[in-house]
Amino acid sequence: MATMAYITTNDSIQLHYTRKGSGTKTLVLVHGWQVSSAVWNLVADELSRKYQLIIVDLRGAGASNAAPGPYTVEQHSEDLFNLVQSLELKNFVLVGHSMGGAIAQRFAADHCELLVGLIVIASVPASGLELPADFQAFFRSAAGNRSQTEALWKVFIANPLAAETFTMLLDSSMTVKPEACLESFDSWRQLNFADEVKRIMTPTLVIAPEADNPMTPDFLREKIVALIPNSRLRVIEKTSHYAQLEQPQELGKLITHFVDELCSL
Predict the structure, then answer these.
(1) What's the distance, Cα to Cα, between the start and end of the chain in Å?
(2) Which domains does the chain have, with CATH numbers?
(3) Model-level pTM greater than 0.85?
(4) Which partner from 46, 179, 262, 263 sits 20 to 30 angstroms from 230, CA to CA?
(5) Residue 15 near residue 60 (C-beta atoms within 8 A)
(6) Cα–Cα dist 160/154, whole Å
(7) Helix, strand, coil % over all residues of the chain, rounded to 5
(8) What are the two backbone dihedrals, phi and then psi, of residue 30, each rounded to the nearest 5 degrees?
(9) Which of these, 252, 264, 265, 10, lies nearest to 119 by C-alpha position?
(10) What is the pLDDT of residue 4?
(11) What pLDDT, on the 0 to 100 scale, is given for residue 3?
(12) Which stretches in the chain have pLDDT values below 50?
């Protein structure tokens, strides 16, 4: 059974989260750019059978979309800190996808003592991501535009999703304020804290969907695994950017194996 609630951040905005499942281990799930926490629904069904999940809607997205900016990776990380402090969480596993992976790395670099594990999936690296001008324009065109968002997501999905799953993805995208879409896009493109992630000592799992581009396994190995000392790479085959929608069971198995291994240490 899931419960939904809000916490108030240090700048007095309402941040929405969902609590689902139970267990002695807690996982905090952070979604990526131009979507809401709904993208975790399928894999959350798997994970909540064994763990307590805290699933956040970043400011400007989902049920937190009334919140004003700034909509930057740094602000999202600070919001996440407010959330875990409010819920008195510690020794949890932080899981981030795409931009959420960059937020998770920022959080881990600043608050490593709160974490027992870190998982990043198809993650934007701490050094940001260079994109050609035409591709930047394609991303920007998604702000508040359902048809352009649909075209964009089709580029990032290798295996056709069930119609209801793809509709859920689009619906979640349309909860994101256009200004949040645009500002956060510029934020994660221009990140520059690669030297700081070298101090992350938390056991870290980097998950690379085989068919993702530009976050290929080789790219993530060079930009993330090579920097975080206690990290390892795992590849999900025949999957692109949205592994949690394309192969939720396989992703769930990777996460579960890593978390259970942490528990045995």
Answers:
(1) 30
(2) 2-264 (3.40.50.1820)
(3) yes
(4) 46
(5) no
(6) 8
(7) 45, 20, 35
(8) -120, 120
(9) 252
(10) 83
(11) 84
(12) none
